[in-house]
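Hey Z.,

So I finally got round to the methionine sulfoxide thing we talked about over coffee. Here's the setup:
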Amino acid sequence: MVLDYKNAEITIAKELENRSSSTVLQDVVDFLYAKFEKYSWVGIYLVKDQVLVLGPWKGAQATEHTRIPLGTGICGAAAKSGTTEIVDDVSKDNRYLSCFLSTRSEIVVPIKKGRYILGEIDIDSDRPAAFDAQDRVFLEKVADMLSQHI
Ligand code: SME
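And the result:
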């Protein structure tokens, strides 16, 4: 399992090397969705004028939450604080903005450049408590790599 994360990190690093194409974010979203079965919905929100605006995403369904004010929902909390949020049971978190009935847990990882929050990676899982420290470390590295491409 550790190898899965390491291999995924290397694949993404290679994928991003010397690339400035506008499809980079979508490619990484597609890769994460395909690589980890427990990642049921993967999206990237970008901060524009104090609002999180949904960018590339991959999953079975579109979300109605395409614009989320900073501070609102789990997404808005992570973007405001600049800290990764892991929610093991979304039904027990009153900040949670529901997108899909099947979602049981969620991770939101800010994408930062210095002290600026550029956006975030948001992943929903249909499994309870799907995200652990390995996901957090891995996705924070991915966020760091993506910050060069936003
Ligand atoms: N659940 C998020 C909203 C975004 S959807 O998961 C795609 C939240 O609570 O902020």
